[in-house]
Amino acid sequence: MKLLRTKKRKAVVILLAFAFVFTLTFRLAFDAIFNAIIDMELRERLPIRNGSTAWKYWIVPPVPVAFRIFVFDIVNPDEVLAGTAVPTVVEKGPYIYRMHLRKTDIQFHDNHTVSYRQPEKFIYDEEASVGSENDTFTTVNIPFLTTANTLKYESPFIQTFTDAFFRSMNETTFMNRSVYDIWWGYKDPVLEIGAEILRKLNLSSSVVNGKFGFYMDRNNTDDGHYNVYSGNNYDFSNYNMIDRWNGLRFVLCWKRVFQPQLALLPPPPLPLFDSLSLTTAPRTLRLVYNRSTTVHGIDGLHFQIPFEEFASAQDYPDNAGFCTPDTDNCLPSGAINIINRLHSLPGSPVCVSLPHFVGGDPYYQRQVKGMTPSQEKHQPFYNYHPLTGVALTGSRRYQLNLITKPYKYFEAFKNMPEAFIPVLWIDGVADMDKETIDLFKHQLQDMLDAVVYVKHGLTALTCLYVLIAVLVVFYWRRKDQKALDPERSPLMANGRVHRTPTQTNGSVTKYDHLQDPYPDPI
């Protein structure tokens, strides 16, 4: 019986040990197995080639972009001209355009890259906006201000004559323009005369064409010829990163050279606590990991453009090349001078900042009233899917400001304050559509969620085997102790098994058999 009991116990021990080792081994190897499966799936789906899963989403990005414009209406122009008050602005918006993207002129190359153009088509969405794109607001007369700034080192006669000419054409310090005018362009009388003079001289200019607008003649156009890595060699370390932009690997801009890097999607999988680089011609901005997040039920990583990207060289030396004309003329942290970078009117005293000067020096907010900076509302961000690198949501935000100051020989600007007056800010909001959300959930996120449960289940099962083993051993010990406990059987004394007496004859006692007080435990 004892031998049988020992064999049963050995069988139980072997079974539990085998189950424990198998489950533990599978749990430890599960991540490697899962990663190998994911790698196979990425190799099949991610390369940019006709027929792959990524192909149709690469040609037509699945994240619709709402191009939201907010304008700043100057409500006290007379007090500003009189020099009795700083400009006070009231934000109006959003005025929303739907931006439609589609890649064209696609060509594949032997070095595993693909080149393309991506025209941007804007359609106004009045229903989603606060009003018509023809709503008007008051701002500084930008062509007039640009002329004053351009001629500031010319002779007093030339400046005075030019000022008189502008005013004879009914040009004033401030102008009332529509949202459409300031963005897409409007005809300016002085610029029209300049364009006419050039035509008579058989000269042409893409700038002096009789119109001005920040995004003039840009609808249905692209921002250059891109060449990116396709991943067709299954190397995703540089997937969708820019190899060349307009044929150039490096671009000289301001007083520094920058290399275009990230076109839209970062290479998967994304590392935690790392930074990315996003190219927004003509410069590259850093994206810094902030936290994990969930977007429409899909796990994501939240990246932000840090405030240091708009810091002065004194506060952030890496930005020294963006000071114009040199580091002695850096703007206070929070804005970057783009006076010679505005394609629609070079020489315009314009600087770019984050909306409402968020993250900038308080100096800017002291010069204009009406700023309400909010990190949540105004700091640019992107939420990326950690496995595929697809942008789940994002918001590209920036603000255009005019740098104003007095111009002695221009009557219209004689009393103009030294200030940074905001004109408008842009919120390019990208949010994944429902069809793509459902695709991600059903084909990817549900699987990833299931994997988490499987991992937890395997871990719990491993612990359960350990618990069962402990309980079995405890059970066996209790059984053995009960078998050896003299208080639990009158037949036990001094640890020996007694015989049962059946007959006594004189002084001799006879025993007919041995009796075990307990049955065999397992």
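[next item in queue]
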Amino acid sequence: MLTFDMLCPFSAWIKVEQLKPYHPHKEEMIKINKGKRFQQAVDAVEEYLKKAKGKDQTHSDDKSKSDKGRKAAKPMKIIEEDDEDAFKGGSSDKPASSMEPITKRLKIIEEDTGSTSIQAADSTAINGSITPTDKRIGFLGLGLMGSGVVSNLLKMGHVVTVWNRTAEKCDLFIQEGARLGRTPAEVVSMCDITFSCVSDPKAARDLVLGPSGVLQGIRPGKCYVEMSTVDPETITELAQVITSRGGRFLEAPVSGSQQLSNDGMLVIVAAGDRSVYEDCSSCFQAMGKTSFFIAGEAGNAARMMLILNMVQGSFMATIAEGLTLAQATGQSQQTFLDILCQGQMASTFVDQKCQNILQGNFKPDYYLKHIQKDLRLAISMGDSVNHPTPMAAAANEVYKRAKALDQSDNDMSAVYRAYIH
């Protein structure tokens, strides 16, 4: 039976009571363990299974015909400490880092594009823990995404002060150990690094420039991190006003959903002040599975995120269109989904969104109104550089129709209803 070691996938010795069957617990363990080494271990196991299956088929042709489609399940090799290189694909004289004390270590990957990725250290792969920064953290905006982020910051030991336009949303986090700020200005004045995550460009501007706003609390050295998905022009404006007061500015919009936010599995895309990005490393590890720093001016992360969300929104609309066309032509929608999830487009996103549609469950994981906003901003960005975006424009019209059908506050998968009304 193939098993997981619950404590450390590279240990020399494994207690029997710490073993779990591989296949039933695979997704659970991947969700809990975010480190690159753990993913390498999973990849190695999957490669082993493929080779084992190939050998079984080669040596047992007759049996392969009768057991077609069934995966081979051979015992997983328990990697000894000296065998760590089996996961690296090379050799090294250095001690296995998984055997070092559990301390905070960053892995920074420089890419040819000039972007940087900071991923969870190996200690995270072992037990999911990180060493929180000693800086005081502020957080403004406790919506679908912000709530999960703050929860994970608190779980990982950060000192967090929160504010939300609807004050009642702060109560749960106060119970979990957060401090309460009465205004955005007060939060910024109390904290070293303040994050914000709100719905759109107007909300982002109002939060900074409005009465008792962020700008009133900015002093030299204070850090402000804008996590909202907005247009590059808004980011440029906010960066200018923050730095004009001696503040330090970083944009760090996130790719994901409410569930991924709750699970601490967001992808963060950042640009602006590189030193602020590095100061936020423990925060980004708490809230996400990886983060990227985009070289160049502030606004580049907004551009990248709008492109990503443009693709995601257009894809979602296409899936909804396929499901309704299947129904209209007398085909089973469930069979369509089953086939889709066995092909090259298979993903958790496809499966979850299609299941939402088939079950008629449109509880928001990512608001439909927000993906439509992102499409609108991406189209506008394309216009600003004379680049056509006909696919996004077509998808945008479908989402606008869904909004007219009162689907704004439902999940983005509710775009399906634009095709059936």
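[queue empty]
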